# Entry
Amino acid sequence: MTDNLGRYVFVRGKILDETYTFANIYAPNTQQDRFLRDTLRALHDFTTGCLVLGGDFNIALHPTMDASRGHSSTPPLHCLKFVNFSTNYTFYSTPNECYTRIDYFFLPYYYLPRLWDSAIGGTMWSDHAPLTIQLTSPLHIPKTTTWRLHENLLSNPQVAQDVQQALTIYFTENLPQDTFPLLTWEAHKCVMRGILISHSSALKKARDHTIRELTAKIGTLTQAHKQTLDYTLLGELTAAREELAWTLRQSYTRALQRTKSFFYTEGDKCSRLLARMINKKRSMTYIARMRDTAGQLHHMPDQIATAVTRFYTDLYAIPPHAPRADPNMGLTRMNAYLTKYTKTKLSSDAAEALEAPLMEGELALQTLAANIVLLPKEGGDTERCTGYRPISLLNCDLRLFAKILATRLNPHIPDLISPDQPGTIRSGPSP
# Structure
């Protein structure tokens, strides 16, 4: 909901199955009392659930607290009751040489326990200081982070040299005859990840240190200028803001390059780009309640996770089979079928090479594990596990093994597939 002049925007919706109303206003320079009166009336009729009101009110609601001079040219307003969390200011008027606080956030008093943090940031590039608040919800599920390789690390010559040297040393010290191959493969990923994380952390710490120093310098100069209004301090403050903007601009440039490269390489593929677009619907598919197999309804995240885990554990559990009289009966029947209907066969050497094991031993448990993602079925009951479609995300090692098997099999495909069926061969002629 908005007005014709674009002075306010009201949005209403659900987050984690709770209704919120977000209102942002930009009051005019004059007749703020009339504007707030009409706007708050419209907001009262629109509001549902928790109201979060914020914006530029263009007036100091409490001049003795919200103005550095202790007074304001506009009369104070008493139509809004608020709790003062800070004595900082959000705007500096150069003509009046005065700091004021004219940007606010408002919450209903009975929602104040959900307020986790509120802060007034530094005036970096805009004439207004940013305001931030953090709200909590009892239904919030903390997001688990997954480490991903930073592509720019590989373009750093020092990082590339250290990684190559570490790989050489690792596989020299852990020879196949001395260590189990599967253990060597799994451990080398941990070693390389640690080296890349250390380099990435060092670069990030250096960049963050520079940003913190500039931010602290800007904060100190801002506080000093608020007290003295000295033009020399204002010049130093402007120079520090420009240096910080230049430092941040480098990060923005790298982010823009990564975005362009990502859209260029993934734009026509069904991959991460599509996954990120679908990810926007995550709030719509949030599971707020779930019934277990006994039909009991649960609302807390840990109880929902337990109900889902038990359902899919029972669903995917393979029941034990009764022992057969002939354990090789299935293999015997399969060989009989293939012998009868297969017209072409591989030579004994080719068959032996194709059946050679990739490694000795079984696969690691994490390789055989999968993450199950639930997608709601259209028209399904979202309170039951049967109303969701599970998608299993497998380990990347399985994709490597599948590629190896496909590469082994590819040279023998022309000898096994009839020339009348070229559609199943990548290099075969089109029908």
Remarks:
- DSSP finds 13 helices and twelve strands in the chain.
- The CA atoms of residues 67 and 406 lie 72 Å apart.
- The chain has three domains: 8-135, 152-264, 341-431.
- Residues 81-85 have pLDDT under 50 and may be disordered.
